[in-house]
Amino acid sequence: MCRHIAFVGEPVALGELLLRPGHALLRQSWEPRTQASGVVNADGFGVGWYAEGDPVPARYRRAGPIWGDLSFADLARVVRSGAALAAVRSATLPGADGEAAAAPFGSGPWLFSHNGAVAGWPGSLAATAGTLPAEELLSLEARTDSALLWALVLHRLRAGDAPGPALADTVREAAAAAPGSRLNLLLTDGVTIAATTWGDSLWYLTGPDRVVVASEPYDADPRWRAVPEHTLVTADRVDVTLTPLKEPSA
Questions:
Q1: Domains by residue range for the chain, with CATH
Q2: Of 22, 37, 103, 104, whose CB is crowded by the most CB atoms within 10 A?
Q3: Taking the CB of residue 233, how many other CB atoms lie within 10 A of it?
């Protein structure tokens, strides 16, 4: 399992969102409050952010725990951005992919994260993976369920799907192939945010200067709202829309 967060709004230092609040992503790495499985997220972390005038985000990812990276703490103190996606990771299975397995995954303007686990991995998604072109399979950043889910989402985005449908269709496909999977997905292009709840918690916060979508609140602000299970979230700085996701037919 993992914890993740995305925001779009007025530029802010990354540390103001990810490190400084009382229950920021930093604290969620060792003391998550609403995580459905696992108790420590110490198998890697990452953050992607957008610089003004450049649609392609930068990424900083590491294989170790966020609390042990003093260089990131220093970087987050001074780097400011108007949009970012960050995650701390708890590995589903042992692996040797290192920081390549840490979210956010990215391509072009997109940043992506998966909070959860695919049941029966890897065999359960073998047929689904076979629908991807060989070039896209060979381009996977890591041999993990999250990396394959990202490839499935990206394939749909490249085919012209909007972010919400790309996530929703991927979740339904994976849930049908691997019942019991936990499929909370998070996606941003620096302007909009799309996310799903499927097996774990998700919250959103709207304010005068930002919209935030996160696995759990980073502070006690009463404006935080829980997202119902099996829901697609689409958000920008003006609106947040919640759309129910139907379970796949038996």
A1: 2-114+185-244 (3.60.20.10)
A2: 103
A3: 23
